[in-house]
Amino acid sequence: MQTRAETVLLPDGVRMVHHAADLPRAAWDALTGPADFWLTCRWLDVVEATAGVPMAYLWTERAGRPVACLATATATAAVPWALGRPDVLLRLAAKSRLPGAAEFLAELPGEPTEQLMPTLLAGGRHTGSTRMLCGPDATPADVTALAAAAEELGRQAQAATVCYLYLDEHDRGLADVLARRGYRHFTTGEYCSLQVPPGGFDGYLAALPRKRRQAVTADRRRIQAAGVTVTAEALGQSDLDRFAELESGLLAKYGIDLRPPQLLPLLRQLRDGFGGDAFAMVARAEGEVRGFALILRHHDTWYARQTGYDYAYQQRTGAPLYFELLYYRLVEEAAAAGVRAIHYGLGSADTKRSRGCTSSEQRCHLLFLSGRREGAPA
């Protein structure tokens, strides 16, 4: 019987454990760059504690040290996280007319959930930039071995598919390997980030088009007129109960029914597990917290993780809390801290680009594991 800490040796020299606590953590994390926060061991700990699905971590080695790594999770149709499922994403992508999605959906011989689930998620269970970690000593053979091992895990789990839900358009090495192995792909969204100008907010403002600069200046005047103050504070000093209340209200706007007691455990976990690398931008007015943005730090990059707003207050005052918290004041704080980039992730790409972000296309690369079915995408 396999013990929790046992490392399983798979064909082609691939090693595997089922818990992030059993990884060679320092060596795994050494392969992460500034854009890889969601693949760090401490974030994988968070995913394990909250995802409720089997996880497996694969890697290849040189001289006893990992050179290429792959995080995986097995998901059934029962998982609640809609943006972590290929069936739901395919429907959403087709509805949004994203490239390749409608054609992929039309070629399925049946209903997407029946055809695509269960699935072996490869590249991490997060939204945006799912990929392999590859060090300078990794070769195409390492990438191929990890891809093959993930497919075998999927077969053992009786999954219908294996997929990389959000492979970045610039990750050509992995995309080429997957194409040779028979994967098809469709676009799942755009991932947005902002390069922080060295001049702070003044440099940020100067880089925007003239009409946008005027709009930003007007936004800040409304914030001032409403008496809103924004501060950066450690999560240990924050009112997490209020954060959960505000986040629940935001999610409800998008049809997601998560109540504050369901959201509090993750907020507390981030507070307890990330220390000074997790903080919040907090907007206050009239003696109350009116909005927050939770930020996570990795190398010289910040990640906007969770946010929430008092919509009744915003409607009454017209204060643009989202832009002040997540762009204007955050850029000021980031420049002062020497941060090079802020990652905003998926969704509302047009709005994010309007505030200075750049975007890259994300694609779901998917393989049917049970052999090509009649009528399935060729």
TrEMBL record:
InterPro entries: Acyl_CoA_acyltransferase (IPR016181), FemAB-like (IPR007434). It holds the Pfam family FemAB_like. This is GNAT family N-acetyltransferase. It comes from Catellatospora bangladeshensis.
